[in-house]
Amino acid sequence: MRRTTTSLALAAAAALLLAGCGSHGGKDTGGAGKVSPSASTPAKGGCASLVQLKAADSGRTVCVAKGGEVRLNLDGTKSRPWKPVTTSGGVLKGINAGFVVLAGDATAAYQAVADGTAKLTSSRPLCAQPTAPGQMSCKGIQEWTVTVKVQ
Fold it and tell me: Where is the secretion signal located (predicted)?
């Protein structure tokens, strides 16, 4: 009877391990799920003068006043590093973030220079790459994107 219980426990553990990598929805929801506009002094139109973003803010739309700043820090690891953040739309200008960048992190800072909409994007591996033969791997990618409206 002990052999059956052990076999069932091992089978259940293996199934959970296999499901863990592929079942992730692609979003980091570890935070409260809210954009943290720290020091967000509402400027014209209710848009913040400073918006700070993190991995949990993926999929959000934020509003920043023209002349304001958007700062972000995506915490990664050496085995699951974030790619550098890219921006499109031409309404944000990169500025010195003034952050110490740790291996795997992606940090950026932008000034809102024109009215319009921009998209910030990055990605990282969903699972760490194997470091030895016989370890599991997956091809999943975690996408991160935030839409920034400038007014």
Answer: 1-25
